[in-house]
Design a protein that fits this description.
The complex is a heterodimer.
Chain A: H1 17-33, E1 48-53, H2 59-70, E2 74-79, H3 91-100, E3 105-110, H4 115-122, E4 126-132, H5 138-152, E5 159-163, H6 170-181, E6 185-189, E7 205-207, H7 210-216, E8 219-222, H8 238-245, H9 249-253, E9 260-262, H10 275-278, H11 285-305
Parallel strand pairs in A: 1-2, 1-3, 3-4, 5-6, 5-8, 6-7, 8-9
Chain B: E1 2-7, H1 9-27, E2 33-38, H2 41-55, E3 64-67, E4 98-106, H3 110-119, E5 127-136, E6 148-153, E7 159-164, H4 166-169, E8 173-178
The chains are: A alpha/beta, B alpha/beta.
């Protein structure tokens, strides 16, 4: 019988390698569950979960909600547009009000880095970080590494390059932590304006030539260009970004091996990935989405068990 | 901690052959029957029965499924332990099949209740029977009784029935352990 070493899922940074493997083992069983004729189990039937999305999200929110419903949890949703934050209420007050209605767990996305950790210190409920600013997005990294393990058998010893907007990406940071904890070698690749300074202090190699990065790697995790987070011009135009960093079928065909292509979505087709690449058999983008539900079920199940 | 031998290797062998024989008597060629071992300890018993039915009684095409009831248990979050799941391998559909649930020890009946709920996810079977190696009578929390039973045991609450299998415990035997 094993359990997680943490009460909250705030970031991959706080998980041990053993925790990650436990989540993977549990997720594998849930993946079987969601492929049954009846895709639902009653484990969390006495649990109420609040999904607090202070920042827009479509797929993460859907994926969490589906995971919760597959576990028979009761779900309440809350999004920024209808929140009392606009009326001047503080985050702690908002959450404590929700918890007074006997809510057991909180899934939160927030535009400020550290929002989930802050909440975990001040309220009495299990907190799951569904993305905090440009800090961490732990469930995304878990489903990414789980998908790599599923495709390649193991994460340890694999070479993974994360390509694109590293500067604004919480997916990149969580992935770096998860991959390193599982023993993979990580490099980042992108225009130098979108690579954070001092990223080498995390033990990550930097490559600005996308062809060299593809030659080196076993897996390329391609990130979305986050136009909405960019307050200044980091590159001249979309077309120029696509020309220098977009991955196309001929580039993959020129390699002497077959690499795995991943993307956390939503994809800007024709910018970071060409349509051909997105739809090719090398892409595991839709597996990532399916695994996302299983991973989130595992995280919810294991954290609920800690209460 | 003291332990008493309930069933020796030889006792267990006789019982397994009898249970297999009873199954054969009720299910004939097993064409509409699905044997379901409960994870983790019921699967070993189910495998033994399948072995005897195949080798000794020459039953062909026996279907053995493994059902994990972890996510259906009623004690999630009620104990100190996290319940970790085992692999689940069920036939895609049990619609109109005759299902035999197989577990090693029937105690409170709660695992079987969970298994009955879990089975629901795969369709509506024609009938469900229960086979257990040991029936700890007088300790039931629910109105559940086995259709096929190896041995009835009267054990008090702080005693535990431990079933050992050659494959994992180096011997075939059943012990009554005083905690």
């Amino acid at each position: 019988m094993s359990e997680l070493s943490v009460k909250h899922l705030l970031g991959i940074k706080y998980l041990t390698e053993k925790d990650i493997h436990l989540i993977f083992e549990t997720a594998a069983q849930f993946k079987e569950v969601i492929n049954r004729p009846i895709k639902k189990v009653p484990s969390l039937r006495d649990i109420t979960i609040a999904n607090l999305f202070f920042e827009n999200s479509t797929r993460t929110k859907l994926s969490f909600e589906l995971a919760q419903k597959r576990l028979t949890a009761d779900v309440i949703n809350f999004s920024a547009s209808m929140s009392s934050l606009k009326k001047g209420e503080t985050l702690i007050d908002t959450v404590n009000n929700i918890l007074s209605m006997k809510v057991d767990m909180v899934v939160m996305r927030h535009s400020s880095a550290g929002a989930a950790s802050f909440l975990a210190k001040h309220v009495d409920a299990s907190i799951i970080n569904a993305g905090d600013g440009a800090h961490e997005h732990p469930t995304q990294a878990l489903l990414d590494t789980f998908s790599i393990q599923e495709r390649l058998g193991d994460v340890a010893g694999k070479k993974v390059v994360i390509i694109g907007d590293i500067l604004h990406s919480r997916v990149a940071l969580s992935n770096i932590f998860a991959l390193q904890k599982l023993g993979a070698e990580v490099r980042v690749c992108g225009p130098s304006t979108l690579i954070p300074k001092h990223i080498d202090s995390l033990g990550v190699g930097v490559e600005t030539d996308v062809n060299k990065a593809l030659e080196w790697c076993d897996v390329a995790n391609v990130l979305r260009v986050q136009f909405e987070r960019m307050s200044a011009s980091y590159f001249p135009s979309n077309r120029e970004y696509a020309a220098f960093y977009g991955i196309t079928q001929p580039m993959l065909a020129a390699l002497d091996k077959e690499i795995v292509i991943m993307h956390p979505g939503p994809i800007n087709r024709g910018v970071e990935l060409s349509s051909e690449v997105v739809d090719s058999h090398q892409s595991i983008i839709l597996d990532q989405v399916e695994n996302g539900v299983a991973i989130r079920m595992a995280v919810l199940y294991l954290l609920a068990a800690k209460k | 901690m003291s332990q008493k031998l309930l069933l020796s290797n030889e006792d267990l062998r006789i019982i397994l052959y009898r249970l297999a024989c009873q199954l054969k008597e009720t299910h004939d060629d097993f064409a509409q029957t699905l044997l379901v071992g409960l994870q983790p300890r019921g699967v070993r018993l189910a495998e033994r029965l399948v072995h005897i039915l195949t080798d000794h009684y020459k039953v062909a095409n026996l279907q053995l499924s493994k059902l994990d009831i972890t996510f259906f248990r009623d004690d999630f979050r009620r104990g100190d332990k996290v319940l970790n799941p085992n692999a689940n391998m069920m036939e895609a559909s049990i619609e109109n099949k005759r299902v035999v649930l197989i577990d090693d020890v029937l105690y409170t009946g709660r695992s079987i209740r969970s298994a009955l709920t879990a089975i629901d996810s795969y369709g509506r079977p024609a009938e469900i029977q229960l086979l257990t190696l040991i029936d700890r009578r007088f300790s039931r929390h629910l109105p559940i009784q086995p259709d096929f039973c190896g041995r009835q045991v009267d054990a008090i609450q702080n005693e535990r029935v431990v079933v050992c299998w050659e494959e994992e415990d180096n011997e075939d035997a059943v012990y009554l352990v005083n905690k």
